[in-house]
């Protein structure tokens, strides 16, 4: 199991505390420092069953500068969104947990973290 975090994010810290409290085995990826490639973002989106605009933080400064709110949300624009996430990792919703069963969750709630644990990753 891997968790993509920004240590400054309270939801990320809460998710890590929950994982630790449950004795989970996981790897931390500080995605602002170890930026995911476009291919990794595509893979995580597939695991999440979501589109790139579903995991984009549209209130971030970079999103406003790029004008993301006006970008189309369709198959033709999908790669443009993915490239924006790879080029501006702060835009990626966090934390994201990739579970051992091949799935992933955006772990912004305790329930989502526990769901990832049920899918695998207990110590």
Please describe what this structure looks like:
There is one protein chain. The model has no long low-confidence stretch (mean pLDDT 94). The chain is of the alpha+beta class. The chain starts with a strand and ends with a helix. It has a four-stranded mixed β-sheet with strand order 2-1-3-4, sandwiched between helices. It has five helices and four strands; from the N terminus they run βαβαααββα.
Radius of gyration: 14 Å
**What percentage of the residues does DSSP assign to strands (E)?**
5-15%
Structural category is alpha+beta
Low-confidence stretches: none
What structural keywords apply?
123 residues, alpha+beta, four-stranded mixed β-sheet
Quick summary:
The chain is of the alpha+beta class. The protein has five helices and four strands.
Write the SSE topology:
Elements: E1 2-5, H1 10-21, E2 27-30, H2 38-48, H3 61-66, H4 78-87, E3 96-98, E4 104-106, H5 110-119
Parallel strand pairs: 1-2
Antiparallel strand pairs: 1-3, 3-4
Helix pairs in contact: 1-5
């Amino acid at each position: 199991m891997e968790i993509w975090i920004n240590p400054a994010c309270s939801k990320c810290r809460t998710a890590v505390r929950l994982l630790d409290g449950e004795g989970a085995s996981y790897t931390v990826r500080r995605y602002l420092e170890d930026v995911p490639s476009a291919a990794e973002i595509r893979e995580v989106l597939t695991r999440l069953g979501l589109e790139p605009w579903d995991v984009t933080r549209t209130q971030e400064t970079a999103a406003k500068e790029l004008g993301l709110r006006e970008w189309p949300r369709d198959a033709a624009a999908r790669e443009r969104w993915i490239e924006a996430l790879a080029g501006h990792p702060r835009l990626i919703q966090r934390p994201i947990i990739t579970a051992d069963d091949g799935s992933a969750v955006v772990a912004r709630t305790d329930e989502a973290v526990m769901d990832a644990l049920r899918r695998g990753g207990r110590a």
